[in-house]
Design goal:
Layout: H1 3-15, H2 20-23, E1 25-29, E2 41-46, E3 52-54, E4 63-67, E5 70-73, E6 75-81, E7 89-94, E8 96-102, E9 111-114, E10 117-120, E11 127-133, E12 136-140
Parallel strand pairs: 7-9
Antiparallel strand pairs: 1-6, 2-8, 3-5, 4-5, 6-7, 8-11, 9-10, 11-12
């Protein structure tokens, strides 16, 4: 193998971007106002924001140690390809009330698999905004990140 062909191959491989959706990823935050997006997914609001969890009650919950005996519950979105290396994906959440997706992620889709629930997508915005109410996800209009407004 010639040195030039190896260098050319390495340059092309380095320039190629891996699609994070095809690989899958997890986005985790303690405070959505201080977090950005990853792979076009953004957590906007937690179900239980900033709640301290007593020691010993955190076995099935993602928590962050904030002192020797105090933990804070985190919000998490796990994005997984439906098939290996496919562009179709599912989302699983924990302690997330509102999230948004870049419109380009779901342009060709009519529905999205979110927490094992099929959610119909109909949004003309740049982003798709989703909210969990009474345990069910639905598309919602965007509202300010700092809003505590209840409908």
């Amino acid at each position: 193998m010639k040195r030039e062909s190896v260098l050319d191959f390495l340059a092309r491989a380095k320039a190629r971007k891996l699609d994070p959706l095809a690989m899958g990823f997890t986005l985790t935050t303690a405070n959505p106002l201080e977090s950005g997006s990853k792979g076009g997914v953004r957590i906007l609001e937690l179900e239980v924001p900033g709640r301290r969890v007593p020691e010993g009650i955190y076995s099935n919950t993602m928590v962050m140690l904030i002192s020797s005996s105090s933990y804070i519950r985190l919000g998490r979105v796990t994005v997984s390809p439906v098939f290996p290396l496919s562009s179709k994906f599912s989302l699983d959440t924990s302690n997330v009330k509102r999230l948004s997706l870049e419109k380009s992620l779901v342009d060709d889709e009519l529905a999205l698999l979110l927490d094992k629930e099929t959610v119909l997508i109909d949004s003309g915005n740049e982003r798709v905004y989703l909210e969990k109410r009474r345990g069910r996800w639905s598309v919602r209009l965007p509202r300010p990140l700092h809003s505590r407004h209840r409908d």
